[in-house]
Structures are given as structure tokens and as C-alpha cells.
Amino acid sequence: MPTKEQVLDALRTCIEPELGKDIVTLDMVRNLSVSGGKVSFEYVLTTPSCPLKESMERDARTAVLKVAGVSDVSIKMTSNVNKDLRLANIMPPGVKNIVAVGSGKGGVGKSSVAANLAVCLARDGAKVGLLDADVYGPNQPQMFGVSDYKPRADENDKIEPAQNHGVKVFSMGFLMDPDTPAIWRGPMLHGAIQQFLKDVLWGELDYLVVDLPPGTGDVQLSLCQSVPLVGAVIVTTPQSVAISDVRKAVAMFKKLNVPILGVVENMSGFACPNCDHVSHPFTKDGAKALAEKHLLAFLGSVPLDGAVCDAGENGTPVALARPDSPVSGAFRSLARQVAAQVSLQNHRRKTLEIETVAS
């Protein structure tokens, strides 16, 4: 009959593709049971949005079935999102990872990407919040169908966020007249960001997605100075004008010691609904070339589709409103790539910390 050690040895041949170590060493195999020829265990992923979940399960099953005497393998796939260790004892409590979504310029669909990233992570089973930090143009209340939400403080002066589509949402839009512009200087912006992080009851979250204003201004600086960011997602369109501005955003985050999780090319191509011909109104592969030049991860391309705008204006991000569409598939892939990059960043940071202590 097979033994637990034989099964573990077999599972040590399974390498986590993003982290580069075997799944036993990474403590991803839990509650292993061997009874006669039947083997069961829990396979704990670092995110429910793992892009390689199916292949990893298949590889583990194949490895265990090669052990002499094993006739049946039962694998329970679960997840436990790793926490950015720098967030310990730092506001907001309960939040494991803070992911910023930024852009070098406006008009590239950054808020749409942030909204669909949030709902896709939530759909995969993660606990997700979305902070709309674009104080000059807060669009997330409309995109999530919560424009009428009126926040109130409890007896401890803490504010409950709005909730819809499985995501907790807070925005400057809840506190402003929609027709009144925000004419604020740096200290006021810094105070607002601090309050959104400190006084909103985010609760337990695997990911807090922060929708930043476009460019490289005070809000970006305030956020980076207030809390550690696990990383930033940069959104651009393919044309050279947008790419030029993205370089500035990349340089800003690097200067502030914020890892770049990767680059997203939005509005990358348009598929004609009548003939299926794909055209590229903003040229092609500009973001991919930028990512390669700066040694950044290319997180994927999102096609140009009017449904993104229609769904957002009607209060349901397109990834939920039209889940079977190509653009929704692109957003789901994007979310899983972002989740993988977050896991990779946390693993690198933990490994570095262990090596530092050991030395």
C-alpha cells in the first residue's frame, strides 16, 4: 500500500509555475489522507483567481496516480490569498493586498478596467473592495449602480461602504454634488485619501482595488505615502500618444518603490459585429512593446467593444452584464493575471525577508 511520504514525494515533482517551487515546500498540500489505494488532500492555491488552476490540479492528480498502489485521487481545490506583510498593523485593518490601477492620461478606460477587474476577482471567489480615488471624476458609483448611496458614520465615526455585484465600493462621488467640481489642493486630497483608508469599514478583503486619477499627481503621491501597495496595474491604449504618457506613470511608480504588476492594452482592436473582421483603430501592440522594453509583465489586451460603455452606464460592469462576450473573457483573463502577479510579489517579498533574517 502507498504511504504518505511516497505521495508527498510525488507531489514534490509538481512545481508552482509562478513561484518556481514545489507545492509541498510551498505548503500548498494540506490534510493529506492515504487509506489503502485512496488518496485525498486539500490543494491550497494562493488566489481563487489562479489562471492555471485546472492544469495544476491535473498535474497533481497525474503525479499521485503514478505512485504504486494508488487507485483513486480526491483533490479539494481551495485558496488562501497571501497578505502583503507590510500591511501588518497598518490601515486599513483586514485588507490583505492593495492594488492601484493607474494610467498616464485620461480617456484610456482605466475606470472600466478597475471596475471589471474588481468584479472578476469577486466572481472567482475573492473578497474585494474598490476605492474610487479619482476625486476629480468619480465614475464608479454609476458603474456599480450605487449612485444614490448615502454614506453614514456609525457611533465610532466609521463609514459603511456601498456594496453591489459582490464588491464593496467607496467613492468621493458619494460625498459630492455631481455637478460641483472638486477644486482641491494637495493637503485636502491627502486628507481625503487618508479618510477613505482609515474610516471606511472595508472589513476582511483579499484585494482592495484603487482606481486612481489619470496622470502623476497628488492623489498618487498621497496613496503611495499612506500605505504599502502590493503593485500597480498600468492601463493604456495602443497609440503612441498614450504610450508616451504611460512611460511617465511607470517612472513615477518606480520612483515611489511601487512594483508594476503589469501593463494592460485597452481598446486594442475592434471586431465588426457583421463580418467579424478585426481592425485596429489605435495601431497594434503598442502596450506589449512597451512592456517588453521596460521588462514588465504584459497582462493582456481588451478589445474595443461598445458593450463596455453601455454596461458601465447602466450600473453593471460588462464582465457580469455579458459574461459570454469576448471582452468579458479578456477581463477575466486580466484579473487572473493580476492575481498571479500579486501572489508572485508577496512570495518574492517573503523570500527576501527570510533571506535577510537568515543573513
Overview of the molecule:
This protein is α/β, with parallel strands linked by helices and 359 residues long. It has two domains: 4-79, GMP Synthetase, Chain A, domain 3 (2-Layer Sandwich); 85-357, P-loop containing nucleotide triphosphate hydrolases (Rossmann fold), CATH 3.40.50. Helix content is 36%, strand content 21%. The strands form two sheets. Strands 4, 5, 6, 7, 8, 9, 10, 11 and 12 form a nine-stranded mixed sheet that branches. Strands 1-2-3 form a three-stranded mixed sheet, covered by helices on one side. The longest helix has 33 residues, at 326-358. It starts with a helix and ends with a helix. The mean pLDDT is 88.
Shape: globular
Total DSSP E strands: 12
Give the low-pLDDT segments.
none
Gyration radius, rounded: 22 Å
CATH fold annotation of the largest domain: Rossmann fold
What is the fourth-level CATH superfamily of the largest domain? P-loop containing nucleotide triphosphate hydrolases
Largest beta-sheet characterization: 9 strands, mixed
Q: What's the helix-strand series?
A: HEEHEEHEHEEHEHEHEEHEHHH
The rounded distance between the terminal residues' Cα atoms is 43 Å
List the helices and strands and how they pair.
Layout lengths: L3 H8 L17 E7 L2 E8 L7 H13 L6 E8 L18 E6 L6 H14 L4 E5 L7 H4 L18 E3 L2 E5 L14 H13 L8 E5 L6 H9 L4 E6 L3 H16 L4 E12 L6 E2 L6 H8 L4 E7 L1 H8 L4 H4 L4 H33 L1
Parallel strand pairs: 2-3, 4-8, 4-9, 5-7, 5-8, 9-10, 10-12
Antiparallel strand pairs: 1-2, 6-7, 10-11
Helix pairs in contact: 3-11, 5-6
